[in-house]
């Protein structure tokens, strides 16, 4: 089918007419209503085609409101898992492909008709699975104005918004309104697109470099932590070993002093005292026995002997007192001042120091550029000519 003029807007549909089989129809938008006409009988071009349009205007035949069709089309687009064209025929069929230019899901059969139609044969379709995968990341654009229910044809760069022909009345003072077709022509091969793609590649590369740099830094920090813990453990081990050594030395010195005082001095004196105490207690018992059983002669000679022993023992006790043998011995330990300072003043084995050095990281820096589409000339609204 030949290309149609602007006032003969159309879209494709599968419609079941009467009791016949499914037919492929071109639906014309004339006077606000859509008129289905079979491709098999619709004139391709010329006067006969114009006469068909005039005939439809005189006798519309089967029609349906274009606003309802637009609403149905939006409903189909909102459920891309099912064929939108079949949905208009109240048939539910799973979709296989998506046409972004028609903004419509297609089943296998409708895709074939879509590819055969001259109006859509140049449209590119993608598998519905790929579209659904992109659905969450790509912006969903409604090609119809929500206020005037007409197709967007212009773009206002001042307000960064799409415009239909009716919306244009509110942007008469805007000096940078351009046609969407001109704005989007060859956009995928434009310098701006290439620069943006290059910038994305550079940023991805830089992010990868920075990520590797940071992850490497984290690994280094963990290794440094393990090294510091090992150093702390080694120092603690050295301190423990040294303390164990000087503790052992001090204990040996303590034991030697205790043995010296107890065994050599106090214990020897105590042994002599115990022996003399036993002897004196025997003499005391002899005195009691002499009183009871001894004769006067026995008592006389025993008294002389006991008196001598008493004098000897008394002299021994006096010597003990004179030569400080009876001095009380006490043992104490004076901890070295350095050890006391270690406990009192040394509050930590060390301090953790954090230093920062410039990272040896070279980033790819894209050239500074203004974010705008290359090749799009800002036209005044007065330069736009409307063709009806």
Describe the structure.
- Residues 78-128 form the B box-type domain.
- GO terms for molecular function: ubiquitin protein ligase activity; zinc ion binding.
- Keywords: Metal-binding, Zinc, Zinc-finger.
- This is B box-type domain-containing protein.
- The chain is α+β, with helices and mostly antiparallel strands and 388 residues long.
- It has three domains: 1-140, no CATH class; 142-190 and 373-388, Double Stranded RNA Binding Domain (2-Layer Sandwich); 236-344, no CATH class.
- Helix content is 49%, strand content 10%.
- The protein is built from nine helices and ten strands.
- It has helices spanning 47-58, 66-78, 84-88, 108-116, 128-135, 180-184, 191-293, 296-322, 337-344; strands at 10-15, 23-30, 33-38, 64-65, 97-99, 104-106, 125-127, 154-156, 161-163, 177-179.
- The strands form three sheets. It has a four-stranded antiparallel beta sheet with strand order 1-2-3-4. Strands 6-5-7 form a three-stranded antiparallel beta sheet. The protein has a three-stranded antiparallel beta sheet with strand order 9-8-10.
- Helix 7 runs antiparallel to helix 8 (296-322).
- 9% of the residues are buried.
- The model is unreliable at 1-49, 55-77, 369-377 and 379-388 (pLDDT under 50).
Short précis:
With 388 residues, the chain is of the alpha+beta class.
């Amino acid at each position: 089918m030949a290309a149609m003029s602007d006032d003969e807007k159309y879209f494709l549909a599968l419609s079941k007419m009467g009791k016949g089989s499914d037919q492929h129809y071109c639906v014309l938008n004339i006077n606000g209503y859509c008129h289905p006409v079979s491709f098999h009988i619709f004139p391709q071009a010329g006067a006969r085609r114009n006469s068909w349009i005039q005939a439809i205007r005189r006798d519309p035949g089967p029609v349906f409101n274009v606003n309802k069709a637009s609403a149905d089309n939006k409903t189909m687009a909102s459920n891309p898992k099912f064929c939108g064209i079949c949905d208009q025929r109240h048939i539910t069929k799973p979709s296989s492909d998506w046409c972004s230019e028609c903004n419509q899901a297609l089943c296998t059969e409708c895709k074939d008709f879509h590819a055969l139609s001259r109006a859509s044969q140049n449209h590119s379709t993608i598998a519905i699975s790929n579209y659904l995968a992109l659905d969450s990341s790509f912006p969903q654009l409604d090609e119809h104005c929500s206020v005037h229910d007409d197709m967007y044809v212009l773009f206002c760069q001042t307000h960064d918004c799409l415009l239909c022909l009716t919306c244009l009345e509110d942007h008469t003072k805007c000096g940078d309104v351009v046609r969407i077709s001109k704005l989007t022509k060859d956009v995928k091969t434009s310098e701006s697109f290439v620069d943006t793609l290059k910038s994305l590649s550079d940023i991805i590369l830089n992010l990868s470099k920075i990520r590797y740099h940071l992850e490497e830094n984290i690994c280094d920090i963990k290794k440094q932590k393990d090294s510091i813990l090992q150093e702390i453990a080694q120092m603690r081990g050295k301190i423990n070993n040294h303390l164990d050594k000087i503790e052992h030395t001090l204990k040996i010195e303590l034991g030697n002093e205790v043995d010296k005082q107890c065994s050599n001095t106090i214990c020897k004196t105590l042994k002599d005292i115990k022996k003399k105490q036993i002897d004196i207690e025997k003499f005391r018992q002899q005195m009691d026995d002499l009183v009871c059983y001894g004769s006067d002669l026995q008592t006389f000679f025993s008294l002389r002997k006991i008196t001598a022993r008493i004098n000897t023992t008394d002299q021994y006790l006096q010597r003990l007192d004179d030569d400080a043998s009876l001095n009380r011995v006490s043992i104490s330990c004076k901890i070295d001042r350095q050890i006391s300072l270690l406990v009192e003043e040394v509050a930590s084995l060390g301090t953790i120091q954090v230093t920062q050095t410039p990272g040896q990281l070279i980033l790819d820096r894209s050239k500074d550029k203004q974010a705008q589409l290359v090749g799009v000339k800002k036209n005044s609204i007065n330069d736009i000519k409307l063709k009806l």
